Amino acid sequence: MTGTAETTTSTHSTTSPPSTTSTPSAAPDAAPDAAPNSTDIRPLMASFPSGVGVVTALGTDSAPRGMTCSSLASVALDPATLVVCLRTAGPTLRAALDSGHFALNLLHEDARTVSDLFASGSTDRFAHAEWRLPLGAAGPHLTEAALAVADCTVVHAVEIGDHTAVFGRVTRVTHTDGRSPLLYGRRRYARWSAAASAPAPEAGPPPARALPALAVPSPLEGEARVGS
After folding, report:
1. In this structure, are residues 154 and 10 in contact, taking their beta carbons and an 8 Å threshold?
2. Low pLDDT (below 70) residues in the chain
3. Is the Cβ–Cβ distance between 67 and 163 less than 8 Å?
């Protein structure tokens, strides 16, 4: 879910389109990825549940912009960097690139209406959500809907089809309260608190014949271990 209903008349892009007047290659076989790809990956990604965020930024007219975004991930811990994927033709992307900043608002599990609001085509979405702009904020903070906010500086952007991956250096993280996150998958919402409180699966029957225990050597000092 990446706010595809966001309305805009912007046609800006972060990179220039390739020339259409170049001479065709004489190579007999085209590159495998050169053909248009019409595969619909939405059913695939619907099977990958994630948290829900709203990316916000201020436009050149100082008006707030924002869109719901679940296509996000951490990129690096040092320097702290994350990536969000925004609709290329949307005003939120334009505001983030023009200002060089954006805020990522991670929503708590009671903020479904805010998620729907910022995924809709409403042009006055900020009139229906409580927000503020703290000193030094990279974009509007959704004070009633967010459990955490990351203020980011744009360091790179890559346009890929109808979305643009925006890499942001995290300059500040604000935790608003101790609520649980909102989840989204299979085209519906879920509550983290409900998922986390689900009973553990029942233990299966014991194996017919137990295998002998294997001696596991202690890791050497400085040895790399998975999960360390």
Report:
1. no
2. 1-37, 177, 200, 203-228
3. no
